[in-house]
Amino acid sequence: MPNQRSLRFLSSALLASAVLSGLLAARSSLAAQKPYHIVDRWKVGGEDGWDCMLADAAAHRLYLSHGTRVEVLDTQSGKTVGSIAGLHRAHDIALDDAGKFGYISDGGGNSVVVFDRATLATVATIPAGNDPDIILFEPATQTVWSFNGHGKDVTVIDAATRKVEATISLPGKPEFAAVDGQGTIFDNIEDKNEIVRLDARTRKLTGEWPLKGCESPSGLAFDVTGKRLFSACDGKKLAVTDAKTGKSLATVAIGEGPDGAAWDASHGLAFSPNGGSGTLTVIDAAAPGYPAIETLATQRGARTMSYDAAADRIYLVTAEFGPRPAPTADNPRPRPAVIPGSFVVLVVGR
Hints:
Blueprint: H1 4-33, E1 37-43, E2 50-56, E3 61-66, E4 69-74, E5 80-84, E6 90-95, E7 101-106, E8 111-116, E9 122-127, E10 132-138, E11 143-148, E12 153-158, E13 164-169, E14 174-179, E15 184-189, E16 194-199, E17 204-210, E18 220-223, E19 228-233, E20 237-242, E21 248-253, E22 262-264, E23 269-274, E24 279-284, E25 292-297, E26 305-308, E27 313-318, E28 344-349
Antiparallel strand pairs: 1-28, 2-3, 3-4, 4-5, 6-7, 7-8, 8-9, 10-11, 11-12, 12-13, 14-15, 15-16, 16-17, 18-19, 19-20, 20-21, 22-23, 23-24, 24-25, 26-27, 27-28
């Protein structure tokens, strides 16, 4: 039977453990809530529009689509180190897991362009579907997936042979996609307000889940460990979905006009870049109710993003705009022209 001295020692140890746990939790919470701010602006120039961007943390590079080219920046200096040119309309970039090749969805050319990451030289052009948009590399099967916007399907390419292996029909227009690294792919279907799940090994659609309270989902972030999907939607909403069951977990308020999303596994944060309102919403996904812990003023048009986990940096891209043209029957919602020389990368950090 323990004596009084041993009981006092045990109580003190338990108290110390509880205090330490509390301090660690508080430290984690404070780290998650430490505010972000714009730490730099990298002028890129040019006058074309843009779409997606991708940070390569290991190589300290940032790839960003810019009209008929993909610009490549050094993330340590902010300087342009080169570009992949000769495209029709660049949309998105994916990178293999060997550090050798990259892949660009060329929407205007209905193709996937393969480039050497060391030299930035184009090494292959592979026919894809109608209007390749979002593209990703699936590591378990070593395949490249081109989600074709107008075609409402996905082209599956063997990375080794650079041959098309399959074309999978989708229930609507695909937007951003995400992989779990084990052979499962998720994709937002913009015109159906839903997420689909795909099996990379069988090349089959295995799930189709409606997104409640979400209109036109675009950006998609994936908490692989927690099995949660974050879909940025019109109407200033972000939908949180259980990646195992498709069940809706929450609908969170964000800003206007998002076209991207990202996940920070270290701090349990989800991000939504809101181009219409010129803000970045930071969501604490570890807290009950998924509260927005910060709404950072960025710049109008900063609607897509990439998160560099190694540097804990967020990259946004935008430009300044001229007046919006008058609508026409052929183009009822015309975009304003980019002011030449104003294309810029916003670097956000703590």
